[in-house]
Amino acid sequence: MTTILGAGAFGTALAVALSGTGPVTLWGRRLPEARETTRLPGVTLPEAVRLTDDLAAALTGAERVIIALPAQALRGFLALHGDDLDGRWLINTAKGIDLETGESPSTLILRACPKARVAALTGPSFAADIARGQPTALTLASTAPGLEGLQHALSTPVLRLYRSDDLRGAELGGALKNVIAIAAGVAIGAGYGDSARAAVITRGFAEMVRLATRLGARPETLSGLSGLGDLVLTSTSALSRNFRYGKSLGEGVPFDSGVTVEGAATARATSVLARDKGIAMPIANAVAALAQGSASVAQTMETLMTRPLKEE
Ligand SMILES: NC(=O)C1=CN([C@@H]2O[C@H](COP(=O)(O)OP(=O)(O)OC[C@H]3O[C@@H](n4cnc5c(N)ncnc54)[C@H](O)[C@@H]3O)[C@@H](O)[C@H]2O)C=CC1
Ligand SMILES: O=C(CO)COP(=O)(O)O
C-alpha cells in the first residue's frame, strides 16, 4: 500500500497518478470536504484514493510513504512524527535545502527515521501535468537496497521512473534548479530578454554542478532529469511558481506569500553552503539577496555583469 503525506498540489497529483497501481491513501492536515483542491484546479481525486486527516490511520499498513511536503516544513514534521514513519520506504519529493541546518530532505529523514529506506522522487514534472495523465519521466534515487522494486511499484504507463543511486545528486539538482528558475524569472520580469535568460540558465547550471559535486554528487546526475531536465522546465515555463516569483521580483510587483516557492529559502541556504565550501555562486547569491530584499534588481544585474572577466 502507498500512502502520500501532504494533500497539496504534488501529493494530490501523485495520488491521482498512482491510483491505478493499488491501494493509495492521501493524508492532509486539513482536508477539503470535496475531492477537489484549490491547489490543483480542475482535478478531482478518484474514489479509489482513500482521503484522510488521521495520520495513524494513513500509516497503518503502508509499505511506502511518499512525503510531499514543502522542504522548510519537513524538519518540524519529522520532529513530531518521525517515530511513526520509521521502518519503511520513505520517498521524499521536496525540492529544497533546509534553511536552519543546510541539510537535504533525505538527510533530515534518515536522522529522524534511522530504520527507513529513503528515496527521492524528483525531476521535471508539474503537478498539473501528472494529474492530467500527461507523459512524464522522473528520477527515483536511493542508496538503499530494493530500489528496483520501488521503481516498478511507482511507475505507470505515463509516469516513467529512471532509478539512480546518486541520492545526493538527485536531491541537490532538484533543490538548486529552483534557485536558478527564480533568477530566470527575474531576467524575464525585468525585461532583460531571452538571451539574458539563456545566460542565467547556463551559468546557473555551472553553479549547480560546482556546488553539488563538491557535496558528493556525480556530474552526470546533474545533467539528468533531476538537474538539467528540471532546470529547463522551471526556467522556461510560466507554470513554475519559482519562475513566476522571480518574474514578479523583476517586475517589482508583489507575489502571493501563500504560494510555495522553494527556491527563496533554498537560495539563502545555498549561499551559506557555498560560502562555507568556498564555491563561487554569484547567481544563487543574487537570488538570496533579492529574496531577502537586500538588493535591487538593477544593483544585482550590475554586480553580476561587472565581475572580473574569466574563462568559461
Ligand atoms: N507542484 C509541483 O508541480 C511540484 C512540486 N514538487 C515539490 O513538492 C513539494 C510540495 O509542493 P506542492 O505540493 O506543490 O506544495 P503545495 O503548497 O501545493 O502543498 C503543500 C502541502 O503541504 C502541507 N503542509 C505544509 N506544511 C505542513 C506541515 N508542517 N505539516 C503537514 N502538512 C503541511 C500544506 O497544507 C499543503 O497541503 C515541494 O518541495 C515542491 O518543490 C515537486 C514536483 C512538482
Ligand atoms: O518542480 C517543479 C516541476 O518539476 C515545480 O516547480 P515550481 O515549484 O517552481 O512550481
Q: What small molecules accompany the polymer chains?
A: 1,4-dihydronicotinamide adenine dinucleotide, 1,3-dihydroxyacetonephosphate
CATH architecture of the largest domain: 3-Layer(aba) Sandwich
Q: Give the CATH class of the largest domain.
A: Alpha Beta
Assign the structural class, choosing from mainly alpha, mainly beta, alpha/beta, alpha+beta, or little secondary structure: alpha/beta
Distance between the termini: 49 Å
Strand arrangement in the largest pleated sheet? 3-2-1-4-5-6-7-8
Order of helices and strands: EHEEHEHEHEHEHEHHHHHHHH
The CATH topology of the largest domain turns out to be Rossmann fold
Radius of gyration, taken over Cα atoms and rounded to an integer in Å: 19 Å
What ranges have pLDDT less than 50 throughout 5 or more consecutive residues? none
* Shape estimate: globular
- Give the number of domains: 2
Helix count, per DSSP? 14
Instruction: Count all strands and give the number.
Output: 8
Query: Quick check: average pLDDT?
Result: 96
Binding site for NAD(+): 6-11, 127, 241
Pathway: Membrane lipid metabolism; glycerophospholipid metabolism
Domain Glycerol-3-phosphate dehydrogenase NAD-dependent C-terminal: 166-301
Binding site for sn-glycerol 3-phosphate: 95, 123, 125, 177, 230, 240-242
